[in-house]
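Thread amino acids onto this structure.
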């Protein structure tokens, strides 16, 4: 007769709006709309620009052009008493000069190509005097052309460009590290916001359960009043309703707080029309071989590996810098000189050279040795850091694994209790009371038990899903699984 009054005992967790915003859609909205990721992406782009700049700075052509205009005036007196000769020389020279240099380092082997060209056109006005007469040679003009090309290959120190390329190699590793930082920041952000998501679903679900309880209690009170039960029993039921209303107000206050946080994250979100919803039945896929998985896939471990690679690159550089300079150079030079001082003259000289140059400081490089020792010790330090981080992550994963397994057992017990609980218990107690064989407190206690069972199951389920997110985030697969 009163069966509709206890419909709230149906397992509410299976209900939901058709247009509900799912966990996956919530994450996608954050990724698309939030400027947080744009800022982090800019950091990654900056690292890429720096990396490309370092490579260009190393291996691009370097072309320098120079010019010179000037005038030189010189007066010289010279006396030679032995030969009884006394003369003075006055020179004015206009200087016009052009020069250009072109160099390039080759990234593959550390060699360097250098090409240079110099051209000058000096004009001289010159006067000479001696005891026996006057000498002069005016407007003397010279043409000078010099061109050279050389290629140097390091054979020991800086062999293969190991010293010069250090900056670029470290920039490449920095870029890879920044990519991991960006992914880590995204997952940390998504994990934090999903906790807000779950809290909203938690309070929203509990509110609906309490509203159903409140609706059923008011219906029972109305039935009692229609049956003319004692004022004492009606008063007891009213106090129960008041208590339920206070619980509802508390939950609604908590929901509003979460609502404000959601509104900041999602623009134009209408949660009354499109509420948040999770798949209550989704379960975590636990990783069996945690040790190997962490080595292969966890970003915190990979970042330490990048630190180790950077340290090894520095050690390699300082080890090579201890070697002697031993370079092989081939070069060609052509000098053309044309002038008419006193008599017309012209010369052209071409020179080819192949040489090996060796140099080594007998006292060694103290500064280089200090850095080499430093980075070797740092290598051991990073090994310890790697192991400590790996142990910490595995320990945290094992703890979460235990909590997830216990959470499933707890949910199974709640479900078992719900399955064993009679949906018409409240109805039976109410009928007993109305027939004069029961007490209204039995009805209220049965309602309290049913409500507590459902609310506790919601809390336990939300805790399980929060641990699921924490586990996926710790294993760096949250974005993959959340989308």
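Threaded sequence (483 positions):
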């Amino acid at each position: 007769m009163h069966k509709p009054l206890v419909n709230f005992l149906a397992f509410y967790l299976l209900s939901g709006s058709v247009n509900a915003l799912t966990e996956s859609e919530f994450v996608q909205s954050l990724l698309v709309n939030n400027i947080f990721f744009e800022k982090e992406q800019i950091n990654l782009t900056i690292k890429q620009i720096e990396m490309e700049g370092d490579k260009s700075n190393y291996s691009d052509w370097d072309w320098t052009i120079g010019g010179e205009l000037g005038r030189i005036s010189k007066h010289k007196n010279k006396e030679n008493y032995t030969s009884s000769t006394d003369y003075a020389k006055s020179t004015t020279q206009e200087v016009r000069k052009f020069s250009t240099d072109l160099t390039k380092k080759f990234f593959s082997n550390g060699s360097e190509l250098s090409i240079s060209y110099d051209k000058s056109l000096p004009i001289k006005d010159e006067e000479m005097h001696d005891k026996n007469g006057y000498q002069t040679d005016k407007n003397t003009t010279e043409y000078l052309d010099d061109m050279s090309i050389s290629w140097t290959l390091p054979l020991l120190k800086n062999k293969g460009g190991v010293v010069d390329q250090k900056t670029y190699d470290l920039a490449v590793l920095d870029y890879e590290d920044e990519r991991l930082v960006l992914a880590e920041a995204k997952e940390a952000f998504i994990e934090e916001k999903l906790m807000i998501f779950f809290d909203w679903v938690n309070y929203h679900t509990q509110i609906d359960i309490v509203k159903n309880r409140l609706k059923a209690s008011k219906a029972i009170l109305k039935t009692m009043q229609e049956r003319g039960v004692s004022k004492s029993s009606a008063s007891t039921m009213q106090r129960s309703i008041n208590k339920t209303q206070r619980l509802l107000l508390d939950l609604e206050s908590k929901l509003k707080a979460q609502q404000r946080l959601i509104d900041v994250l999602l623009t134009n979100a209408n949660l009354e029309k499109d509420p948040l919803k999770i798949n209550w039945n989704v379960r975590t896929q636990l990783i069996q071989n945690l040790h190997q998985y962490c080595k292969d896939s966890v970003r915190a471990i990979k970042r330490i590996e990048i630190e180790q690679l950077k340290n090894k690159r520095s050690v390699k550089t300082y080890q090579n810098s201890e070697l002697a300079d031993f370079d092989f150079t081939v070069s060609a030079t052509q000098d053309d000189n044309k002038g008419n001082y006193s008599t017309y003259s012209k010369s052209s000289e071409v020179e080819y050279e192949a040489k090996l140059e060796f140099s080594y400081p007998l006292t060694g490089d103290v500064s280089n040795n200090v850095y080499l020792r430093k980075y070797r010790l740092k290598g051991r330090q990073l090994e310890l850091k790697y192991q400590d981080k790996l142990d910490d992550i595995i320990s945290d994963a094992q703890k979460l694994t235990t909590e997830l397994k216990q959470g499933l057992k707890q949910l199974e017990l709640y479900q078992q209790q719900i399955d064993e609980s009679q949906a018409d218990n409240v109805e039976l107690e109410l009928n007993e009371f109305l027939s004069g064989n029961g007490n209204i407190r039995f009805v209220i206690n049965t309602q309290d038990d049913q409500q507590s069972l459902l609310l506790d199951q919601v809390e336990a389920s939300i805790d399980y899903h929060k641990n699921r997110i924490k586990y996926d985030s710790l294993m760096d697969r949250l974005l993959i699984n959340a989308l």
